[in-house]
Design goal:
It is built from 13 helices and 16 strands. It folds into 2 domains: 248 residues, Beta-lactamase (3-Layer(aba) Sandwich); 125 residues, Beta-lactamase. The chain is α+β, with helices and mostly antiparallel strands and 416 residues long. It is 29% helix and 17% strand. The strands form 5 sheets. The protein has an 8-stranded antiparallel sheet, sandwiched between helices. Helix 2 runs parallel beside helix 6. The two termini are 39 Å apart.
């Protein structure tokens, strides 16, 4: 995070009715999620809603640090975890626009260890039976989570167990950097033939490593130089600077009764430089910063005269790239953070293709994702709408209805 460029603290920029919202209906959102704080399900939260690039609604409830009595404020810094993934996808597509790679390129061209990928067939974590992959992992597989990679924290498959045994659950083995992690992941079996299914995974971390290889820069340096500084994202980085420590929210986990309980050992990782620059989940950010990133997406790759991507590239990323235009409900392995029916997956972002099938009020073409600590965002180009919701309760599956409820309550407030 930069100490030179002045911070942009978000504030309401346009009156609700002028932006097509009913103020009384907007209050429903705050009342609803306020109950999450009142009964202890969330320590606190921040909600930012904008339309046409201007902030319409900004509200907070609860605490960034319950024990110290510090409230969530407009400039609070949060761990955004998997909301890092779209940023990594943008970084990769910036290099794509420079001709650095083809989406069909094998990953092994840039990370040779993946040349010998094998696919799990049967057996235990100690005695797995594998066969050589018939299809190489390609870059588009990483961007769409169809590579056959996984996460240790999913606890669904034998290969997940193997990831945990190798030291990958909610962190990384001590002493390994991103390049070494990729070598380790390449030595583990794939869940399936690349391109044949969707499974949430470390694919964005591998993609981040490819950004490093192609650019000759560490991922943190590439992000800072090519994305954060141009967009004025002064609060975003792989850890919170000491000068920003008081703004960093504490991290909480649910206790058996569902109440948020602080987890200082795990939360402290965001206060020091990491050895692994995780393109899948390593960033901290603020509402103001992430709003600028999403405004760039809504603006077709540009913001305030700074262009990161062509509008054609953003539109291409925003299409459903799953084979046969399948949705995650039929093509994806179960994932508990959001309804998957009617939801496709583009290059680094989920995309709504059938709101009726999803049973959640939304728009065709809406882009979204979330983070493990109960954060979420969505961008609706047809409505020129951006929503950013930030909290710090891990894991996000604790309250699986939070994201669908966020959508239904935001869209019901639009009345123009």
């Amino acid at each position: 995070m930069s100490a030179v460029t002045p911070r942009r603290v978000p504030m309401v920029e346009v009156e609700a009715t002028a932006a097509g919202f009913d103020p009384a209906r907007l209050e429903r959102i705050d009342r609803h999620f306020g109950r999450y704080v009142e009964d202890g399900r969330l320590p606190g939260w921040l909600l930012l809603i904008s339309r046409g690039g201007k902030v319409v609604h900004l509200s907070t409830r609860g605490h960034r640090d319950v024990e110290a009595g510090l409230a969530v404020e407009a400039d609070t810094v949060f761990r955004i975890y998997s909301m890092t993934k779209p940023i990594t996808a943008v970084a990769a597509m910036m290099l794509y626009e420079e001709g650095a790679f083809d989406l069909r390129d094998p990953v092994s061209r840039f990370v040779p260890a993946f040349a010998g990928a094998r696919v799990y067939q049967q057996g235990t974590a100690l005695r797995p039976v594998t066969v050589p992959a018939t299809e190489p992992i390609r870059i588009w597989h990483l961007l769409t989570h169809t590579a056959g990679l996984t996460y240790g924290f999913l606890h669904r498959h034998v290969v997940d167990e193997m990831y945990r045994a190798a030291g990958f659950e909610w962190g990384y083995p001590e002493g390994l950097d991103l390049a070494a992690c990729c070598e380790r992941w390449a030595s583990l079996p794939l869940l399936f033939e690349p391109g044949s299914e969707w499974n949430y995974s470390v694919a964005s971390d591998v993609l981040g490593r490819i950004v490093e290889v192609l650019s000759g820069r560490s991922l943190d340096a590439f992000f800072a130089e090519r994305i954060f500084t141009p967009l004025g994202m002064t609060d975003t980085g792989f850890f919170a600077q000491p000068s920003d420590a008081s703004r960093l929210a504490a991290l909480y986990l649910p206790d058996p009764a569902g109440k948020a309980v602080r987890n200082e050992p795990f939360g402290a990782a965001a206060s020091r430089p990491p050895l692994v620059h995780s393109g899948g989940g390593g960033l901290v950010s603020s509402a103001g910063d992430y709003h600028r990133f999403t405004r760039m997406l809504l603006g077709g790759g540009q913001l305030d005269g700074v262009r990161l991507l062509s509008d054609r590239t953003v539109r291409y990323m925003s299409q459903n790239h799953l084979p046969g235009r399948a949705d995650l409900g039929t093509f994806g392995r179960p994932f508990g953070e959001a309804p998957l029916a009617g939801l496709g997956y583009g290059l680094g972002l989920a995309v709504v293709q059938d709101p009726v099938r999803s049973r959640v009020l939304s728009s065709v073409g809406e882009l979204s994702w979330g983070g493990a600590a109960s954060t979420a965002f969505f961008v609706d180009p047809s409505e020129e709408l951006i929503v950013v919701f930030l909290s710090q309760l891990l894991p996000s599956t604790t309250h699986p209805m939070l994201r669908p409820q966020l959508r239904q309550l935001v869209y019901q407030a639009l009345v123009d």
